[in-house]
Design a protein that fits this description.
With about 180 residues, the protein is an alpha/beta fold. It is built from 9 helices and 6 strands; from the N terminus they run ααβαβαβαβααββαα. A 6-stranded parallel sheet has the order 3-2-1-4-5-6, sandwiched between helices. The chain is globular, with a radius of gyration of 15 Å.
């Protein structure tokens, strides 16, 4: 009576219409002619030895190494520490012309951006599930997704700006993209 059917996030890919690039550009100003790094990061309470400000600080420091890419941030949910993450992202976006924060894409638009991203960076389950289904590499940071099944296209790193940057660089190589 038990069937193993996979992750529910995959149903959204197959059962819903993903927004067109034109729709997303019109609504959010995203330029699909530029390479995209999609960042979906949530504060992680499982990583209690690293403060939330250190967590997001390492992510943002690593992303500064990619000025030619369009960096699209999604806002975290309402979990503890989310305001710290959001404040740091807003500050980063204010100082980096290549960065944008979208408070809420909605599923159709989020999947449209992910499908065309060069890499997904963060600690969201979407980096392990949906990104892999689109053939988009992901850099999973910290322990938030610990013990979840992940494809070979997912690189797991700690809260080290150097580790994160190196993993993103690797994900962006032609060999890894292939």
């Amino acid at each position: 009576r038990i069937s193993v059917v996979g992750d529910c996030g995959l149903d959204q890919i197959h059962d819903s219409e993903i927004a067109s690039p034109e729709e997303v550009r019109e609504k959010f100003g995203i330029d699909f002619s530029r390479d995209i790094i999609l960042v979906t990061f949530h504060p992680s309470t499982l990583d209690c030895q690293t403060s939330v400000s250190e967590q997001i600080g390492a992510v943002l420091k690593s992303l500064s190494a990619f000025p030619r890419y369009q960096i699209i941030f999604t806002a975290p949910g309402v979990e503890q520490g989310a305001e710290t993450v959001l404040e740091a992202i807003r500050h980063y976006v204010a100082e980096h012309a290549n960065a944008t924060l979208v408070d809420h894409f909605g599923n159709r638009n989020y999947l449209a951006v992910m499908q065309r991203a060069k890499v997904v960076v963060g600690n969201s389950s979407s980096g392990l599930v949906e990104a892999s289904s689109f053939g988009v590499p992901a850099v999973n940071i910290g322990q938030r997704q610990k013990n979840r099944l992940a494809a070979d296209s997912v690189q797991h790193v700690s809260y080290s700006a150097i580790e994160i940057r190196t993993a993103v660089e690797r994900a962006l190589t032609a060999d890894f993209q292939q």
